[in-house]
Amino acid sequence: MLGALTGFAIIAVIIAVGYLIARLEVLPDGAGLVLNRTAFFVGSPALLFTVLARADLSTVFSPFLVAAFVGALVAALLFVLASRLLFRMRFGDTVVGAAASGYVNANNIGLPVATYVIGSTQYVAPVLLFQLLVFAPIVLTLLDVTARGTVSLKSVLLGPIRNPILIASVIGVIVAATGVELPDPVMAPFDLVGGLAIPAMLIAFGMSLRGQRPFAAGSPRRAVLVATAIKTIAMPAITWVIAALVLHLPAAEVAAATVVAALPAAQNINTYAVRYNQGVMLARDAVLFSTLASLPVILVIALLLHPAG
Predict the structure, then answer these.
(1) Residue 265, beta-bridge partner list
(2) Residue 30, pLDDT above cutoff 90
(3) pLDDT surpassing 90 at residue 270
(4) What does the alpha-carbon distance between residue 259 and residue 278 come to, in Å, rounded to a whole number?
(5) Cβ neighbour number for residue 157 with a 10 Å cutoff
(6) What is the pLDDT of residue 10?
(7) I need a surface site. Which of 7, 58, 59, 276 has the fewest CB within 10 A?
(8) Residue 73: is its pLDDT beyond 90?
(9) Alpha-carbon torsion angle 224, 226, 227, 232, nearest 10
(10) In which region does residue 220 sit, left (phi positive, over 0), alpha (psi from -120 to 50) or beta (all else)?
(11) CB crowding 176-214: b at 16 or more within 10 Å, else e
């Protein structure tokens, strides 16, 4: 429990530093985006490569991933049901809302939370792979069909394999599966570059919080609140039930699965919404509110389940 509290405090402090940097205008305009892109294209791939190359694949690809998958699927379906019964939203908006309800921010927030709260990033890696290989192509295909009336098979297939995080993760899995032990001089640069990922993500996230204006005119408030509630409360609860009561996973994996499920909606959803002009305000506000709500939820889960010991 002490480890989880300490880790959560570290995350909060670094996010606050990022917010102050933006508030005091220490860095020029656009610096947060540059920092975020550096973490995404450079730091995160190096970090995930080193984690997976040294990982026990029986732990990475375990029933834990089943719990994460079922939790995400049920959460997305809950929003679809709410949209049909309560909001009567357009198809594209419903797709965005469903994605915001079940697609977790396993990168920008997930990796730091895994490091400081769960105690290991190996539980986030399979979720990242699943989302990039399965969830993202489905969402993009549905949005592509909605926006254009047709689907570009090439864009759907090439999108994931152009992602540097996915490429680095797959290479790491191959190294671990073959049992190859890379020498320290080879791994050291990856360790060093990977070390910038987590602080860069948290600082960039803190910087992005400045100037956010939720619930602007035209925002679908009820849909935003429902998506936020599903993402931060229903999804971790469902995942806990699957992990603990159905799959009977070890306590550490139950805690890890529940914490990962409580992560906020991924920033990717906002990017997809803008790209296809579907549910833009829903995506923006759902990502913001789920991010703010997820922090205390993760803290409560950490206190109850003690994921980091």
Answers:
(1) 104
(2) no
(3) no
(4) 29
(5) 10
(6) 79
(7) 58
(8) yes
(9) 120
(10) beta
(11) beeeeeeeeeebeebeebbebbbbbbbbbbbbbbeeeee
Task: Find the length of the chain.
Answer: 309
User: Which token pair is 125?
Assistant: 């890696």
Amino acid identity, position 298: I
Find where tokens 């996973």 sit: 249
pLDDT band at 4 (very low <50, low <70, confident <90, very high): low
Kindly report, residue by residue over 187-209, the tens digit of the pLDDT.
999 999 998 888 887 888 788 77
Q: Which residue has the tokens 């699927």?
A: 73
Q: pTM for the whole thing?
A: 0.76
For the chain, which residues make up each domain, given as ranges?
2-211+221-304
Question: What is the third-level CATH fold of 2-211+221-304?
Answer: Na+/H+ antiporter like fold (1.20.1530)
Beta strands in 14-124 (DSSP E): none
Q: How far apart (Å, rounded) are the C-alpha atoms in residues 258 and 199? A: 23
Structural tokens at position 92: 């594209």
Residue 166 corresponds to which tokens in the numbers above?
A: 């996915």
What is the predicted pLDDT for the residue at 175?
92
Going by C-alpha positions, the residue among 240, 242, 264, 235 that lies closest to residue 104 is: 264
Q: Is 104 helix (H, G, I), strand (E, B) or coil?
A: strand
- The whole-chain average pLDDT of the chain stands at 84
Tell me the β-bridge partners of 104.
265
CB of 50 closer than 8 Å to CB of 219: no
Sign of CA dihedral 61, 67, 72, 77: positive
